[in-house]
Amino acid sequence: MAVLTLKNVPEELVERLKKEAKQNRRSLNQEALLRLEGSVAGRRRAAGEIIASLRRFHKRVAYLPPLTDEFLERAKRAGRA
C-alpha cells in the first residue's frame, strides 16, 4: 500500500472529517479514503442521462413477462429444492 501525506489541511476540514468518521464509526483514515475514492471513482451522470439509459434498458427487456409475486415465490421454492 502506498502512503499519502497531505500538507496544509485546514483545521476546520480535519475536524469535520473527524466528526463524520465518528458518526460513521470509522477511523479518520477510513473516512478520508472512502471520500477520496468517491470523488475520483467516476463522473456523476446527469439525471437526464440516467433516465435515457433506463429507458433504453427497459426497451431491451420489454419482451420479458413482469415479475409477479407468484413467479417470485415459485423461483424461491425452486432454489431451495
Walkthrough of the structure:
This protein is mainly alpha-helical and 81 residues long. The chain has one domain (11-80). It has four helices and no strands. The protein has helices at 11-23, 28-40, 47-61, 69-80. It is elongated. The mean pLDDT is 91.
Helix content: 55-70%
Please count the helical segments: 4
Kindly provide the radius of gyration, computed on alpha-carbon positions and rounded to a whole number of angstroms.
22 Å
Give the total of beta strands. 0
Count of domain modules: 1
Molecular shape? elongated
Q: Report, as a whole number of angstroms, the end-to-end distance.
A: 45 Å
Q: Which regions are unreliable across 5 or more consecutive residues at pLDDT < 50?
A: none
Secondary-structure class: mainly alpha
Order of helices and strands: HHHH
Q: Averaged pLDDT, please?
A: 91
State the gist of this model.
By secondary structure, this protein is mainly alpha-helical. It has helices at residues 11-23, 28-40, 47-61, 69-80.
List the defining traits of the structure above.
81 residues; mainly alpha
Sequence-ordered SSE layout with sheet pairings:
Elements: H1 11-23, H2 28-40, H3 47-61, H4 69-80
